[in-house]
Amino acid sequence: SARSYYHPKWFEYFIKRGHQVHLISPDAPRFEMPGVTIHCFPQFRFKVLRLVFTFLLGGIFSRRIINREKPDILHAIELDEGFAAASSGFHPFVMTPNGSDLLVWARKHFWVRIIGRYVFAKADVVTSDSVPLKEASIALGAPKDKNYIIQWGVDLTQFNPQIDRGRIREKYDLGDSPLILHPRPLMHIYNIDTIIR
């Protein structure tokens, strides 16, 4: 999605190394992404129309762009975008589930499981950021031998125990009281227990 805040970091990595980056997105961009060519699905006022387009015509829309741009690799993130990518017929195709698509929606809805089976059957490689996500993808037919865990990194120069906390507390006017960081819902799938430890 062109509305994602974290995908531009991935794009920046490849752009700095001289690669061309094209983004096929069901959503219009939320902010500038220098160096990225964005191809948006037609925009609809109602989310249900966007989903209908993604699942019925997203593959055709994507295939046109892919045939024109002739990429070296196609990488889809989340099952709905993965469906459009898988439907395009392009290879090599890398699929990265994002978490809730498999750990929440696929467990609740049989049609999401059907989509997942289709997408993973077409994927050449699957990447996940955790063991539970990898196991969920395998349960839906993702290849075991080409299924990798790639953990998201942390910049240890910015986040480390030796950092001057007083400066940060002063910068954000936090005072001296205890501080609780609560970035996600308190649900098992977000590994909050690991963050607290």
Structural class designation: alpha/beta
Please list the strands of the largest sheet in the order they lie side by side: 3-4-5-6
- Sheet bearing the most strands, described? 4 strands, parallel
Order of helices and strands: HEEHEHEHHEHEHH
Classify the beta-strand content into a percent band: 5-15%
Give the number of DSSP strands. 6
Description:
The protein has 197 residues and is α/β, with parallel strands linked by helices. Helix content is 44%, strand content 13%. The strands form two sheets. A four-stranded parallel β-sheet has the order 3-4-5-6, covered by helices on one side. Strands 1-2 form a two-stranded parallel sheet. Strand 5, helix 6 and strand 6 form a beta-alpha-beta unit. Helix 2 packs across helix 3 and helix 4 crosses helix 5. The longest helix is centred in the N-terminal third of the chain and has 23 residues. It is globular and about 55 Å long. The mean pLDDT is 88.
SSE diagram, text form:
Elements: H1 7-16, E1 21-25, E2 36-40, H2 47-69, E3 74-77, H3 79-88, E4 93-96, H4 100-108, H5 110-122, E5 125-128, H6 131-139, E6 147-149, H7 165-171, H8 192-196
Give descriptors for this structure:
single chain; 197 residues; alpha/beta; four-stranded parallel beta sheet; two-stranded parallel ribbon
